[in-house]
Amino acid sequence: MSIGNGKNVSPAATDRYERVTHCFTERTSQLKQEYNVVVGMEVHAQLLTKTKMFCRCSADYQGAPPNTHTCPVCLGLPGALPVSNRAAVEATIRTGLALNCEIAETAVFARKNYHYPDLPKGYQISQYELPLCRNGWVEIELPDGGAKRIRIHRAHLEEDTGKNTHAGLHTLVDLNRAGMPLMEIVTEADIASADEAYAFLTKLRSILRYLGVNSGNMEEGALRCEPNISVRTPEQAARGEFGTKVEVKNLNSLRAVRSAIAYEAERQADVLNSGGVIEQVNMGWDENRQRTVLQRSKESSEDYRYFPEPDLPPLVVDRQWVEKEARALPELPDAKERRYRQEWSLRPADAGAITSEKSVADYFEAAVTAYGQEDGKPQRMANWITDELFRLLYADGEGQDLRQIADTRVRPQQLAALVQMVDAREINANTGKKVLESMYSSGDDPQAVVEREGLAMVSNTDVIDAAVQEAFDSNPDELARYRGGEKKLFGFFMGQMMRATKGKADPQAARQRLQEMLDSS
After folding, report:
1. N or C: which end of the chain has fewer CB within 10 A?
2. 152, containing H or E segment
3. Structural domain count of the chain
4. pLDDT digits (tens, 9 = 90+) for 104-141
5. Residues 243, 278 contacting (CB under 8 angstroms)
6. How far apart are the first and last CA of the chain?
7. Any domain includes 220
8. Pick from 447, 124, 517: nearest CA to 299
């Protein structure tokens, strides 16, 4: 049984689901204590290769007319034989190593049989009993500052399916994606909340991007997540028992993952509290209504009738091959974050923000190289990047994708030159922010912007004195109150004086001169 995705659901099943499901609302603390959430994740990552998994069709299919990136192999036509993509195997080995997995010496491809319009052969070539990678882990940070390891059960290779587009009573099938190399990463049921799932997927996506094996673009379907969610009482947990799991299919955003898990866990708790039974089914996520919706009954491994793929020999991975891939691994996010904190004394929050995307970390390191590594300089550079440059990136209308830092007009050496001008008191910090905005729009060097717009810092005592006196003359009542003991008005006069100099006054010199003139009567 299934639904409007082309798979039919019986009316009785739909009615039963509707009776036990309602819109997600915040639950009471009593209910939260009554059940524990248990989540295992299945993540499908489309690999960045030039060709498909078992044929020579181009993998650059995004935006191409439907069904133009196909051949007899990926269409499963009689007599066509698959050949494994070596680059996809290497990408999976690198990922397994980065996820602390054991790399198998022999992996076997299998046929996973099921019949949907987006699977032209009637079966999918995957790995079952003998996957390429097993028994790894990813460490996530918990809200209390602690850490938790999420175990990786397996990571294996398979081919992607095509894409169905539903139009009324009709379904349109595009097979350009069919046969794309797909890596499936399966966790153990170690995740205990929607927030932990969010943290895990964020960390995993960061690792895949660092490795260069996956774009991480969930909105394009390059990274898809399917959490298996169940709830159980503390007594069941003590006995090592699990509740009935429900799988939510094809989530394509981090927000959807967190929302779907939170909603589905609460739905299951409601069903159990009302005396109902959880059915093992597949759900979809309705983003508009913020709820899970029934799709179809859940298949078991027996339903897929796995057997070894007769057209592909076992994949033999010698240790030299694994060692070669291990040597090619880049410095990964956790290691880079530790180095920033230990060697450059970066605050944990800044180190985490900068290392979340490889392009940001590359930009930061280039800026630090140009600016200097001594006397807290890396932290000052981190402040400018995470506070000011991130603000401009977020306001640029492109969404919060920090990878666009690689294409910004402000090069790392230019940002370093700007911060050096602030350090040298050629401009003050507030002016520096304005200069950065101009650099972001124009790509000009900071010195050129300062000269063109007349933004050099004013340290001339006569100019500062004139600005202070103007503030006194314009605000005689406030001046009298200050000299009468209302010392908090110092900030008011500082603001008036800075306004008079258009923010270009040297704050240190201005503060000192203002104090002297206020104290003289």
Report:
1. C
2. strand 147-159
3. 3
4. 999 999 999 988 888 899 999 999 999 999 999 999 99
5. yes
6. 89
7. yes
8. 124
- Of 418 and 490, which is predicted with more confidence? 418
Q: By the 8 A CB rule, do 258 and 195 touch? A: yes
Report the C-alpha gap between 113 and 381 in whole angstroms.
55
Which domain covers residue 430, as residue numbers?
333-453
**In this structure, is residue 6 part of a structural domain?**
no
Which residue is listed with tokens 């503060």?
511
284 within 8 A of 293, measured Cβ to Cβ = yes
Tokens of 82: 């698959």
- Which of 266, 295, 320 lies at the terminal end of a domain, its last residue? 320
The structure tokens listed for 366 are 């280039």
Cα distances (Å, whole numbers) of residue 175 to 76, 118, 182, 414: 11, 7, 15, 46
Domain annotation covers residue 206:
yes
Domain identity same for 120 and 194: yes
With beta carbons less than 8 A apart as the criterion, state whether 370 and 412 touch: yes
Q: Are residues 72 and 168 in the same domain?
A: yes
CATH number of the domain that residue 513 is part of: 1.10.10.410
In whole angstroms, what is the distance from residue 121 CA to residue 116 CA? 9
| φ/ψ bin of 248: left (φ > 0), alpha (ψ from -120 to 50), beta (otherwise) | beta
How far apart are alpha carbons 345 and 216 in whole angstroms? Answer: 30
Identify the CA nearest to 259 among candidates 197, 188, 342, 350.
197
**308 and 340 both lie in a single domain:** no
Judge if 62 and 82 occupy the same domain.
yes
Does residue 445 share a domain with residue 492? no
C-alpha span between 427 and 450 (Å, rounded): 8
Residues making up the chain, counted from first to last: 521
Go through 398-412 and write b for each residue having 16 or more CB atoms within 10 A of its CB, e for each that does not.
eeeebbbbeebebbb
Q: What is the pLDDT of residue 39?
A: 98
Same domain, 125 and 264: yes
Separation CA 343–CA 178 (nearest Å): 47
Do 427 and 466 have their domain in common? no
In a domain, 137, yes or no: yes
| Helix or strand holding residue 433 (H, E) | helix 429-442
SS3 at position 497: helix
pLDDT tens readout for residues 14-71:
444 444 443 333 443 344 458 999 999 999 999 999 999 999 999 999 999 999 999 9
**Which one of 425, 453, 481 terminates a domain?**
453
In terms of domains, do 485 and 339 share one?
A: no
Cβ within 8 Å of residue 124, ≥6 positions away: 111, 112, 114, 158, 159, 161
Retrieve residue 477's tokens: 């009542």
Note the pLDDT tens digit of each residue in 160-186.
Answer: 999 999 889 999 999 999 999 999 999
Residue 112's SS3 state is: strand
